[in-house]
Amino acid sequence: PFDRFWQRRIIKRADAITAISSYLAEFAKRYNKKAPLFIVPNGIDPGKFLVPDKVKKEKRIITISRLVPKNGVDILIRAAKETKIANYKLQIIGDGKERKKLEKLAKDLDIEDKVKFLGEIPNDKIAGYLAQADVFVRPSRSEGLGIAFLEAMAARIPIVATHVGGIPDFLEHERTGLFCESENPKDLAVKMAMILENENLSKKLAENGRRLVEEKYSWDKIAQEVNKIYAEVINSHSGL
What is the mean predicted confidence (pLDDT) over 157-164? Predict the structure, then answer.
């Protein structure tokens, strides 16, 4: 309640607002309809995600998530149990209050040998893990934008996600990724298998995803947009 009070107060007093996704822009509009509002997403450096050739025996599913309920890692673990892919590994990068509960879930489902909890990984090591992955998955229950998705796309890793929050800003079904149904491990298992078993689809999603982040989400382009916004706001108030 304390956070929500100050969020609303700050938004109401703003002369201009930037939001990282359409979803958060709509949230801001509820509390300030007068201030100009600009959507400027978070960015990445695509140059950090140049993918080497993959040399491994099993299919590799990866998620990079705080281990909290909103990120739906429990749904991903249940989907791993449902998948018909015989030889796979699920790598979970990140930590949080749900870790012990999720480890127990993997054990209870008898897939603890398939699921690897890697904990926190330094940012400069993330690209190496993505380079060895075949699909990035995060079945979020809510999402402001999701920088981890953009990093996976920059690494030419096809993504699967839910149609929530800011994700639809960058995920177009069967073009830059696949949508799965919320709270549905079986549907998620199907969508993962579509990518892991269909090389043409996987390649198309990977290339389209990389192209999108280069065109829209690189820091150079975002810095230019922010510069324009500051200039516009300053000019509009120069006569005050």
Answer: 97
Average pLDDT across the chain, whole number? 92
What is the spatial distance between Cα 149 and Cα 135, in angstroms, rounded to a whole number? 11
In the numeric block, the tokens 């012990």 are attached to: 100
- For residues 160 and 204, give the distance between their C-alpha atoms in angstroms, rounded to a whole number: 14
How far is the C-alpha of 52 from the C-alpha of 64, rounded, in Å? Answer: 20
Does the pLDDT value for residue 56 go beyond 70? no
In order, the DSSP letters of 12-23 are HH-SSEEESSHH
Single-letter code of the amino acid located at 169: D
CB proximity list for 33: less than 8 A, separation 6 or greater: none
Sequence-distant (≥ 6) Cβ neighbours of residue 130 within 8 angstroms: 49, 51, 62, 136, 151, 152, 155, 157
The token duo for 61 is 């599913």
CB 132 within 8 A of CB 156: no
Q: Which of these, 90, 161, 98, 93, lies nearest to 123 by C-alpha position? A: 93
Token pair of 176 as six digits: 């830059």
147 confidence band (pLDDT: 50, 70, 90)? very high
pLDDT in tens, 111-137: 999 999 999 999 989 999 999 999 999
Cα(240)–Cα(231) distance, rounded to whole angstroms?
15
> Is 102 in contact with 73 (CB distance < 8 Å)?
yes
Closest of 76, 113, 117 to residue 93, by C-alpha: 117
pLDDT tens sequence across 82-103 = 998 989 999 999 999 999 999 9
